[in-house]
Amino acid sequence: MSMTMQFPQNEVKKSKRTRSPRFRLGGSKVSSMLMTGLALFMLLIMAVGGLGAYFLYLNVQAVHTSGEQNSRAQQVLLMSKDMLHARVSLLVAARYQQEASSSMDPALKQKAKDMLDQATQKLETVKKSFVDFRKNLPEDPEARRLSLRLVSTYQPYVDDGIDPMVQALTIQDYTTFYFVNNQFGIERSITFEKAIQTYSAYIDKQEKEAFAAAGEKFQQALMAIGAAVLAGLLLMIAARIIFGRAVIKRLIEAGGHFD
Fold this sequence. Notes:
This protein is mainly alpha-helical. The chain is built from five helices and no strands. It is rod-shaped. The N terminus is likely disordered.
């Protein structure tokens, strides 16, 4: 005799109804989760892009400032070279004039004239460069101070040394020419060259510091981007785990239930 056990139908339905999945995400919807994940990824991408643009802007500014300072330094060095060339040309022209006066050699006289013309041309070039240099003084306080010091040494060198030498040589006043050269020209030239060397040394120092700072900012940018990439990977892993538990696991359980 077989015995069959029967359970009330309402109890079976109740037991099935009380079953619930092990993992529940506070009732959050899958679409909200996906939108939140996409928003986080978008914010992360924007942050990385903004960070890269910021460091790129800083490096561009540093390179631009360094380029301007280097251009001024090259201009100053060219002024110094032209001034020295003009002064040497004046001394050579004076020697040619003296030799031409004693020997009455027209070739030496022409050489003296050519050297004097060459000196005056160099001086005109220097004066134009100096005017441009004064109009575009740097904004950096120390560089501006050194620039003004250079200006203060240039003007006496021209007014007390070079221009009187040119005038004396034009009228063939050799006594005044050599007196001005020995008393003012040499001294003013040394002071002017020291100001140029100080200014150039400061610009070189600034340029090295700018390149060092640019390299440091580049390393910081790499570190920040690396941290952002790592955060993105962690976010992807977290999204995969949450999505797997909230959706995939439930689908598997539902499939097993229907099987």
